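ugh ok so i messed up the first submission bc i forgot one of the chains. this is the corrected input, ALL of the components this time, i swear. 600 residues overall. if the numbers dont match what u have on ur side tell me asap before i send this to the collaborators (the ones from the other lab, u know who)
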Amino acid sequence: MSTATTTAPDLTGTPARRSRRGNLAPLAGRILVLLVALFLTLGPVVWTLWVAFTPTDEAGRRTLSFAAFSDAFAKVNMMRLFWNSILVTALCAVGQMFTAALAGYAFARLRFRGRNALFAVILATMMVPMQVTIVPVFMLIRGMGLSDTLLALILPAIPTAFGTFLMRQYFLGIPDSLAEAAQIDGATPWQVFWKVYLPLSTPGLAIVGILAFNAIWNEFFRPLIMTISSENFTLPLGLVSLQGQLGTGSMSTVLAGVVLSMIPALVVFVFGQRPLREGLTAGSVK
Amino acid sequence: MMGVPVNPAAAAETPVPSIPAAPGRRGEGKLAALLLAPTVIGITLFTLVPIIGSIVLAFFDWDIISTPKFVGVKNFQTLASSPTIRVSFLNTFGFVLIAVTLQIAVAMTLAVLVQSKMPGWLRSFFRSVFFFPLILSAASVSLIMSYLFNEDFGTINKLLGLLGMSPVHWLTSTTGAMVVTVLVYVWQNFGFTFLLFIGGLASIPQDIYEASDIDGASPMKRFWQITMPLVSPTMLVATVMAIISALQIFDQPYVLTKGGPGDSTRTAVMVIYQSAFQELQFGLAAAIGLVLMLIIMLVTWLQFRLSKRFVFYM
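and heres the new structure output, hopefully the right one now
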């Protein structure tokens, strides 16, 4: 009798909890694996912070100080690197948001000949890796007289096939009735875009902007090719060349620079994690 | 991370002609042309023309100073016969094989564990932690790891020393350098695959597990006969995206080892960079780029074919 009363609620009450997936290993084993993964993922980051904040003094001891950070500013034009990275990233992000919104709206809402074919061509360009086109792009930039300028990093990064795809999907999700209502009130197609659809698309724009930030802020390959003088370097390139200049001795100085370059990325991570996640996996999970 | 990993094949599968192409209403065609101009001009100028440029350039000898000289398929012959280029492609394939396998295995294991019985806040905590490396630059990560794996003063060898092990030649031996490159790459990128699996696992209906529970299936049997078939679409997409992204590896070996020791961590993209911007053989670089693009297109095409055949959709 007593067994019946104890097992009955278990079967009818929360059956889902009994059969959740992942019961492969006992609980302790699962916790252990996750803790090891946690340690391995965060370990290098915590270690970086520790080394950056404890540079070695004359006696060779590690002491808590900001010396490595002031060293980073003294030994390399850190302000310049930051400014270049901010300028390039901000202009690319804003440029991508703007052009993707325009094109996405045209593909989602306007009727014109050849629309589907054009959209297919733009989607297909996503398959082309940047390394394949880099040599002609470099020649083009050189021909435009833009080599070793920040514009060489900005201009090619503004047109975005993926952003266009995302914004089109976003605009397709906004009901037709809004456009019809605005048109009945006498709005032109441009007014429908500018005053009705664009204000409603800010979450989509945020995804495009955050994705652009993450990609451009961390970019290494294109700046390595497109810039020659150190005053045009962006942060990742500047930090790698700083390591080269200092050898392996001033670990704390280089890592202080790394920590500084992580701060804006960290801010975006805290506030933009969800949109970034959604943007990265857009179109891949069915 | 080089750019945003996107999955063109999956994106292309979303229906393009979702709205009937009706004859243009007045003014819409002109407005469309205006709105599309920046993107279409930009993509034409910086992607479409360069593709054609690469194809043409691949048949020329050009050092950027003198006039380009038509050489036919000489660049492709060089590509096939140069030991350095051949090794760099073999390195790339080997890297892709090991790194992608590891990345999928780690991501799948962690996704299954995180999706199992666990409070919601803890699950989002793990999701954030495993996602975190994705926001860092591959250059920064490689700088950090080059110190951690340093043979003489690196913390990893110090820890191994505490366990009584002798220092490992991480970055100065051919095997060690490749191992570190794989580890650094997977460390930074497993979170992306993990997110895809979390999404795939979340879409499996719970009642299937309940039914198998009643039938008395063992956990192992449940994993292989229910979970794996049902996440197979995600598995395919995740694998293809991981392969495409790994084929383009450059930042990590460039910062960690500059391709060395010897040619042991030289990758396909690294020889594109070196041929063009160090040896001024722009035609050869274009030819290597084309071969790489063909490989990537082949992988994407295989994804299309495989997803029709082997993947079980609900």
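quick check: Chain A touches chain B through 115 residues (CB under 8 Å). that seems consistent at least. Chain A has a mean pLDDT of 86.
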